[in-house]
Amino acid sequence: QVQLVESGGGLVQAGGSLSLSCAASGLTFSPYAMAWFRQAPGKEREFVSVISGSGLTINYADSVKGRFTISRDNAKNTVYLQMNSLKHEDTAVYYCAAGRYGSRPSEYAYWGQGTQVTVSS
User: How many CA atoms does the CB half-sphere of 71 hold within 13 Å?
Assistant: First the structure.
């Protein structure tokens, strides 16, 4: 049974930082691309960032480029998202996902339950 468990969300002031983690179990982790998506109330789920299985290929949404950093540790079956210079518009539930490398939710077979990030202005 595949499980993706996010942690690290919370409440932070604008300009602050948060670090999210996603621990995977029940799958062979290294072949999977790992991505972060987010969903704000009343909005569609949107792509944030993706990292390839090797960690050598990375992509970011324009809205987070230069502020967020994705990384992974295949020995720990964990993917991370370091979020700096947070803005109010970053407020959302953040989900990690495992699947093919891409920016569309349909490319990901496995999803975590999400972790809330709230940025106060």
Answer: 9
Rounded distance between C-alpha atoms, residue 30 and residue 68, angstroms: 22
User: Any idea what DSSP says for residue 15?
Assistant: T
| Among the listed residues 33, 30, 29, 39, the one whose alpha carbon sits nearest the alpha carbon of residue 3 | 29
Helix (H), strand (E), coil (C) string for 32-92: CEEEEEEECCCCCCEEEEEECCCCCCEEECCCCCCCEEEEEECCCCEEEEEECCCCHHHCE
Instruction: Decide if 79 contacts 51 (C-beta within 8 A).
Output: yes
| Helix (H/G/I), strand (E/B), else coil: 93 | strand
pLDDT in tens, the chain (121 residues): 999 999 999 999 999 999 999 999 999 999 999 999 999 999 999 999 999 999 999 999 999 999 999 999 999 999 999 999 999 999 999 999 999 999 999 999 999 999 999 999 8
User: Bridge partners of 4?
Assistant: 24
